[in-house]
Amino acid sequence: MNGKAYESHNESAAAKLLFLCDHASSAVPDELGTLGLDDSDFARHIASDLGAGALTRDLSARFEAPAIIGRWSRLVVDLNRGADDPTVVAKLSDGRIVPGNATLDRAGVEDRIARYHALYHETVAAKITEALARGLVPIIVSMHSFTPVWRGVQRPWHIGVLWDRDGRLALPMMERLRREKDLVVGDNEPYTGALENDCLYRHGTMNGLPHVLIEVRQDLIADPAGAPSRAGIEHWGARIARCLGDALQAMGPPTILVSKT
Fold first, then answer.
1. Does 256 reside within a domain?
2. Cα 246 to Cα 171: distance, rounded to the nearest angstrom
3. What are phi and psi of 116, to 5 degrees?
4. R_g (Cα) of the chain, nearest Å
5. φ, ψ for residue 161, nearest 5 deg
6. Does 261 map to a domain?
7. Residue 260 resides in a domain
8. What CATH number corresponds to the domain at position 121?
9. What range does the domain containing 55 cover?
10. What does the pLDDT look like over 193-211, one tens digit per residue?
11. pLDDT tens for each residue of 150-193
12. N or C: which end of the chain has fewer CB within 10 A?
């Protein structure tokens, strides 16, 4: 495991897929202490996407494809935000003030970015460059999870597919998931995929690479304490792999999409 920003799996694999997980961990570097938070805060969705890291590792193994997984909590720095985004270091998350971030000035934010954000994105960019040099057009699959209840409202979706202007993989993935009759599938739900300078915008959209972001509801892949559910990971890993494999076949050979703007 890299000591600063990420862990990687199947590094040498020449597969066409590249899995990412920005919010895999609730860990905080020793030098930042606990950010002034309690242990219970780190078991909540504000600290990580519960179960998403384990699910990403499962899919990386199933497809024998490389995966790059964030090592630190999103409360340290949010890898799914651009460096200039005002929420890249959250001062408040779902009503919880983050004391270790609340008084951080711009220099402090830039230090967080330099230490814990930049290397992750440099590594993703290098992996893409390496694949292209091998004659492969990498397909990026970003894995996330979402809390089943938000601000007192129960969310109906089991799984969501997030995308922006490039639906080459997202659209067949949604179509395939919806053939699973017991699933409620979100189209840009519970969030929108049109977030400029987020991870997929930076590495997928701006490079013209096929990509998709998949959100799985947390209670399906994590236990009530926030730990990954072995049964849930196995079930959803197999299910997503089956649907993703069919969606990739429907998409056809990946190409670089040249922007018309």
1. no
2. 12
3. -125, -5
4. 18
5. -115, 120
6. no
7. no
8. 3.40.630.40
9. 6-251
10. 999 899 999 999 999 999 9
11. 988 999 999 999 999 999 999 999 999 999 999 999 999 999 99
12. C
